[in-house]
């Protein structure tokens, strides 16, 4: 029971000292990146920076124990922060105690939505994100993250909305760049590239962060116009339930559902993308439970609703993290920093942070995955490309909606044109096989064996009729028997029932018999329920295709004699 609901316990089986060292280094590195970025997202959400920092403690520990993705990093995230700001702006003044309490309560409500979704086992929603959507989404996020760091690397700020507009604005004012910042950013990227090529396990990002703080302090880079993190408040949060009115609770309900949809979708897309790289799986229902506890932990510790950080997850994965021990190490590091080391962090150049994010984000764009999509289907490449464009140009929430619509449309497209084949006996395979793939497959004169590899329903009923008649009309000799290999047909609906009756009538008009082979119990029951079993004929059902062909051969011999 423990390992079922607490994946962390299962991941500790066979844990070694080598893995511990790797995970700790990864966790410390992620913490160094999380602290300044979480401060920025807190400001974006309209709450004090302390609320962003508190969201790096208990929520991270909660996910470490309950999350099913061993490398995912949770915490304050840009899209969720924007939703928080949008939801709370009409209710209280940004930065006020009332506003901060509302943000914490929103986190509790989001956690409640996650837990209700877990009880309802709504993890299946995640299954509507296809591989094309996953590849497109993670590529789009990588591009957005890279574009978002241009200002930090050049020392140019922009108030433009959207990744492309912001990047264009920054580049338009490149003449105003702070060249000391540019030098810091360029050297940082160069150090990361060299470190990665020398040894992929070398903690280049961690070394860079420490080096960046030391150089910034020694040379007083802030006085040269280099943007730094600035003062960080110290201390740990107290645990309490925020006090808000009933009317505010009602006003936050819709926002809680919106944050749930964004946070869950983003989490599943990100976690499954990274899990696929390591041949792992992510349990969507377990993720609902994990994020329920994560959001509750954020709420009671005066934090804000959190999400999955694509950039920090990329860094965590790049550092070779093997389990959520890295998350525990990250939370512990943040706690130590908040208690004792807030002073040095204030010297961290923003350009160093930007360089680390750019380097990690660039690795998210997997050319091999795009090539695999191209080999599989051009349609999937188009879906992935549209997803990328939506993430970059429209936004994450809108992109997720478009991605779901595209995935469902692709499902309908595939269901409307399922794989099918005319079968013949292959001596080489010693079975009935697709004559298109096996030229040696022999066809029994007067018999057409046809297989369709999907359930029959309204979307593919006409395709089924068209393809079956094409197989009959294309036969080299006059057809007397049609054998339908029904092994892949799990069910039929009313439209398919009508189509099947039309086929039976049409075959009989041509003096052709219909036989069914390898019919499942469920399909046989369904045919019996609508009286099609009797219409087809009880003696026209066969256990194998071979048995059906033999029966047809016997019938032909008996008829001719």
TrEMBL record:
Membrane topology: Multi-pass membrane protein
Compartments, record wording: Membrane
The UniProt record lists the keyword tRNA processing: no
Lineage top rank: taxon: Bacteria
Transmembrane segments: 47-66, 73-93, 99-120, 132-151, 177-195, 202-219, 249-269, 321-341, 381-409
Biological process terms in GO annotation: transmembrane transport
Keyword line: Membrane, Transmembrane, Transmembrane helix
Transmembrane helix among keywords: yes
Domain STAS: 437-552
Cellular component aspect of the GO annotation: membrane
Xref: PROSITE patterns: STAS (PS50801)
Pfam families (alphabetical): STAS (PF01740), Sulfate_transp (PF00916)
CDD domains named among the record's database cross-references: STAS_SulP_like_sulfate_transporter
Protein name: High affinity sulfate transporter 1
Species, as recorded: Humibacillus xanthopallidus
Lineage: Bacteria, Bacillati, Actinomycetota, Actinomycetes, Micrococcales
């Amino acid at each position: 029971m423990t390992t079922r609901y607490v994946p962390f316990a299962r991941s500790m089986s066979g844990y070694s000292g080598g893995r511990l060292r790797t995970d700790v280094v990864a966790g410390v590195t992620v913490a160094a990146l999380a602290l300044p970025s979480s401060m920025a997202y807190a400001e974006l959400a309209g709450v004090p920076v302390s609320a962003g920092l508190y969201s790096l403690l208990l929520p991270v520990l909660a996910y470490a124990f309950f999350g099913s993705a061993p490398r995912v990093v949770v915490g304050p995230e840009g899209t969720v922060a924007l939703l928080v700001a949008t939801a709370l702006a009409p209710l209280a003044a940004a930065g006020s105690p009332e506003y901060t309490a509302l943000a914490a309560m929103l986190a509790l409500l989001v956690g409640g939505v996650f837990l209700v979704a877990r009880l309802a086992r709504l993890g299946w929603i995640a299954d509507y994100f296809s591989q094309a959507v996953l590849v497109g989404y993670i590529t789009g996020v990588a591009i957005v993250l890279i574009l978002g760091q241009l200002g930090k690397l050049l020392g140019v700020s922009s108030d433009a909305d959207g990744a492309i507009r912001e990047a264009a604005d920054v580049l338009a004012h490149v003449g105003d760049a702070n060249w000391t910042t540019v030098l810091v950013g360029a050297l940082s990227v160069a150090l990361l590239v060299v470190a990665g090529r020398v040894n992929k396990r070398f903690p280049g990002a961690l070394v860079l962060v420490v080096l960046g703080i030391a150089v910034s302090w020694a040379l007083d880079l802030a006085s040269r116009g280099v943007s730094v993190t600035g003062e960080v408040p110290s201390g740990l949060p107290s645990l309490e339930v925020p006090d808000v009115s009933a009317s505010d609770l009602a006003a936050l309900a819709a926002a809680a559902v919106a944050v749930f949809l964004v946070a869950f979708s983003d989490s599943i897309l990100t976690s499954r993308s990274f899990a696929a790289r390591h041949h792992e799986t992510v349990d969507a229902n377990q993720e609902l439970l994990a994020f329920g506890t994560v959001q509750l932990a954020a709420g009671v510790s005066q934090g804000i609703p959190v999400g999955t950080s694509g950039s920090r997850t990329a860094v965590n994965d790049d550092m070779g993290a093997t389990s959520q021990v890295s998350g525990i190490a990250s939370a512990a590091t943040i706690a130590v920093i908040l208690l004792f080391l807030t002073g040095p962090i204030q010297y961290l150049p923003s350009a160093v942070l930007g360089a680390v994010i750019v380097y990690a984000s660039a690795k998210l764009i997997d050319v091999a995955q795009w090539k695999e999509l191209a080999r599989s289907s051009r349609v999937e490449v188009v879906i992935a490309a549209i997803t990328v464009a939506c993430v970059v140009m429209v936004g994450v929430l809108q992109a997720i909606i478009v991605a779901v619509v595209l995935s469902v449309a692709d499902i309908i497209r595939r269901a409307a044109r399922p794989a099918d084949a005319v079968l013949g006996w292959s001596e080489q395979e010693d079975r009935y096989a697709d004559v298109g793939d096996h030229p040696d497959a022999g066809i029994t004169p007067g018999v057409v064996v046809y297989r369709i590899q999907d359930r029959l329903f309204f979307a593919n009923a006409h395709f089924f009729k068209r393809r079956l008649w094409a197989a009959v009309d294309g036969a080299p000799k006059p057809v007397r028997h049609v054998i339908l290999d029904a092994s892949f047909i799990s069910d039929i609906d009313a439209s398919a029932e009508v189509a099947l009756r039309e086929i039976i009538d049409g075959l009989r008009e041509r003096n052709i018999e219909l036989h069914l082979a390898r019919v499942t119990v469920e399909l046989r029951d369904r045919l019996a329920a609508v009286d099609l079993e009797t219409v087809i004929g009880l003696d026209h059902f066969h256990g194998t295709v071979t048995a059906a062909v033999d029966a047809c051969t016997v019938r032909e011999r008996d008829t001719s004699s």
